[in-house]
Amino acid sequence: MSGGKDSGTKGAGSTPGPVQIDGIDFTAPRRHNAFSKHPELMTILGRWENPLLAGIQKLPRIATVLRVWRVFGALLYISEIAVDADGAPDAYGPAGTSPQQGFDPAGVVAGSDGQPVKQTAGAYVGYYLSATSLRNPRAVPGGDPSKFVDANKIPYIALPAQMTYSDKGSYGATNLANDRAEVGDYVLVVNLRDSRSAYAIVADLKYKPVGEGSVRLCELLGLRADAVHGNDSGANDIAYLVFPGSSDDVFPESDMNVLKTDKANDAIANRSVQNINEQGAACFSNWLHEIAKESAKTYDPHASHSRSDLLLPNNTVSAVRDLRAYLNKNFP
């Protein structure tokens, strides 16, 4: 999805409240099975019962660099977007192939002998198997790239691991307690420079204080998707609005027999992207509704955890632009 337009489908992926996006009324309850993995988390519908989530909080910078805000249960950070090809079947390869980037042991699956595993299925047989943190729960052979999320066809982000339950340090436990994100959660990503937006899924985790997105996500945002040379996005150009706890446990598959140059005809990947758009739009709708509901209440103006004057429009790009201006003014 691009151009700042939202998309969604009425039904299982919808949320409570009167919000309409592109004429679609999100009214049905939205719940997820993923909470069984973290029973301490609240459901999407109940998370705002916690008064600490019914407001805005500026969090410490990640690695002293990346600014993060908690905004009515969602997590917002603004950065550039580095290009992530991990998970793509042509991300890495031996001599004689045409990989997207040079060899990186951190992005390649190694066998028991420590050597890179070569793909044994799909359109890029012989290339190295490249991994993502989000993995297909379906059993697949060892050399099958469908185990991982294809960066060429699926819009995903690589989330700073400090914001997740996988954090090996103290940032998440100290600053986010029971409100951290995880792989499989949904995200709204906005190119603030030219007003394009896209929904994405958290498919990779990295200890880098910088935004990072898949080849497909960069394309949707109108940016060069070159895993070697990157693009010209700047530190204040890309906004990431993450919805913790929003995973529906649906792995975004693609047809590994379809070349990336023919991705428009990959029916499996297209269905995955449609689900990401529907779930992401539902999260955005529910988030806007909760902000409107909580902002209508009267709060102590001296309370740091709540604000009563934040109202955002339904459009994704306009909402994030207004939110950034609000945070820069009130939570710099």
Helix content: 10-25%
SSE sequence, one letter per element: EEEEEEEHEEEHEHH
By helix and strand content, what is the structural category? alpha+beta
Stretches where pLDDT is under 50 for at least 5 consecutive residues are: 1-52, 304-308
The spatial strand order of the largest sheet comes to 3-4-5-11-8-9-7
Termini separation (Å)? 30 Å
Arithmetic mean of pLDDT = 81
What summary fits the major beta sheet?
7 strands, mixed
- Gross geometry: globular
| Proportion of residues in β-strands | 15-25%
User: How many strand units?
Assistant: 11
Number of domain units: 1
Radius of gyration: 19 Å
Q: What is the helix tally?
A: 4
Structure overview:
By secondary structure, the protein is of the alpha+beta class. It has one domain. Helix content is 17%, strand content 17%. The chain is built from 4 helices and 11 strands. The chain has a 7-stranded mixed beta sheet. Strand 8 and strand 9 form a beta hairpin. The longest helix is centred in the C-terminal third of the chain and has 29 residues. The N terminus is likely disordered.
